[in-house]
Design a protein that fits this description.
single chain
Length: 159
């Protein structure tokens, strides 16, 4: 029994740490987003470009970690416990993928470009839409964490 507990901890203990790190990245993303969204002088194109670039760096890192690390672990837990989690993933994950497209498209608009004041104004319009999409994404991610990982925490502890 002790060996089973150790195996579960080794197997799933890292998932909680992974999620915690990822949620800290989310916090950094929100800080960058809020910092940028309060700007009102669109003529400061170089300074704003730097802020957009920093936002996009964190955005892409966050989205990538979700897809290539966190979701993979959550899906693996769903497979292991086979308690309806895969059906839940099948419903939610495609909606999360749509938000990924919006985030990556936003990044592409900023990536490697010099920005005019007109570009900055357009990006601020898109930034507002990005914020709405991110809010929706965060809700779906939290739902998956709650229903796939947190729901299994008791089962992992007793394994």
């Amino acid at each position: 029994m002790l060996e089973n507990c150790r195996n579960a901890r080794e197997r799933w203990g890292g998932v909680s740490e992974l999620i915690d790190r990822w949620l800290k990245e989310r916090q950094e993303l929100l800080v960058r987003y809020c910092d940028l969204s309060t700007e009102t002088d669109f003529s400061q194109t170089e300074m704003l470009r730097d802020k957009f670039v920093r936002l996009c760096e964190v955005l892409v890192d966050y989205v990538s970690a979700g897809h290539f690390e966190v979701y993979e672990q959550l899906i693996q837990e769903a497979r292991e416990f086979n308690d309806g989690g895969l059906e839940l993933v099948a419903k939610v994950y495609p909606r999360i993928e749509q938000t990924t497209g919006v985030a990556l498209n936003f990044n592409d608009r900023v990536d490697g470009r010099l920005l005019t004041e007109g570009d900055v104004r357009e990006l601020f319009s898109e930034l507002s839409k990005l914020g709405e999409v991110l809010e929706s994404r965060f809700e779906m991610e939290d739902f998956l964490i709650e229903h796939l990982h947190n729901a299994h925490a008791g089962k992992m502890a007793s394994a």
